[in-house]
Write a structure and sequence with these properties.
There is one protein chain. By secondary structure, the chain is mainly alpha-helical. It has helices spanning 3-19, 21-33, 40-53, 55-60, 68-85, 89-107, 110-115, 117-125, 131-155, 183-200, 204-232, 239-243, 251-261, and strands at 161-163, 166-168, 173-175. It has 2 domains: 3-128, no CATH class; 132-261, no CATH class. α3 (40-53) packs antiparallel against α8 (117-125) and α10 (183-200) packs antiparallel against α11 (204-232).
Length: 262
């Protein structure tokens, strides 16, 4: 690497850090307080390692710098400004990824950006989903879990009635909470599946199959545990044992089994 190119990279990195220092600080804080996205602390060093591992392939790819990168950078900075004015953290974080993409296109071209698409996908999965989108995903999954719970309880010969995500039994009424839907582990398991597929499977279609199976496993296990807990609440063990059960406890073991069977 020439001295001029090294100075350019240092200046670009410094400018990027200065521009997004508040965004990065808030993102790191969210990783530390939101257990659903604590995997973000592992994603960044993992991305750095993958880039280092693929440095030979990246260096061998043709470098075709494009001024279109400036357009990406300008659009991303406009998104950053809009996100700050509207107090929308998600936009500012997307702007950070957009700016990184623009820098890569400006310095090396779209071909290099395509080769780094996997790393950008991992970084994208480390960004917390906005609450409005999170709720739109979580509630349908709650309905699926409640239907599964209703079916499991009815199969045991226990009278049950369901309205939405509320399961009504003879002795009590129970609500299928957001944690029972599998949404809490969905993003982290998807990230794990992508990383697992990257290191263990060379075929692209096998990587996506593994990722999809992990996501479905997360939802299915949340529903399965819901049915067991809700059914247990009608037994002599009592409602208390059902309410105190840890949400999502079967998800990780079952996901490991799914990956092993793959």
């Amino acid at each position: 690497m020439s001295r001029n190119r090294l100075i350019t990279l240092v200046l670009v990195a410094a400018g990027f850090g200065l521009l997004f220092r508040d965004v990065i600080a808030k993102l790191v804080h969210d990783w530390s307080v939101d257990e659903n996205y604590s995997h973000g602390f592992l994603v960044v060093p993992l991305v750095v390692y993958i880039l280092w591992r693929e440095r030979g392939n990246l260096a061998s790819s043709p470098s075709k710098p494009s001024w279109a990168g400036l357009v990406l950078i300008a659009g991303s900075i406009a998104t950053l400004v809009a996100g700050r004015l509207g107090a929308e953290l998600y936009l500012t974080r997307l702007a950070m990824l957009g700016t990184l993409s623009g820098i890569i296109v400006l310095l090396w071209g779209f071909g290099r950006l395509r080769r780094m698409s996997f790393e950008f996908l991992l970084l994208f999965l480390a960004i917390p989903i906005p609450a409005i989108i999170f709720n739109q995903i979580a509630f349908p999954l709650q309905l699926i879990a409640s239907r599964f719970g209703e079916t499991a309880i009815a199969a045991c010969g226990i009278p049950v009635l369901r309205e939405g995500n509320v399961i009504m039994l003879a002795t009590t009424t129970l609500e299928v909470a957001e944690a029972c839907s599998g949404i809490r582990s969905l993003v982290s398991l998807l990230t794990l599946a992508l990383v697992w597929g990257y290191f263990s499977e060379s075929a692209l279609w096998l990587r996506w199959l593994l990722s999809s199976s992990r996501s479905l496993t997360s939802i299915a296990c949340g529903s399965w545990s819901t049915g067991l807990r809700r059914g247990a609440s009608t037994t002599p063990i009592g409602v208390g044992s059902s309410a105190s059960a840890v949400h999502g406890w079967p998800t990780i073991p079952a996901s490991r089994s799914a990956s092993s069977s793959s």
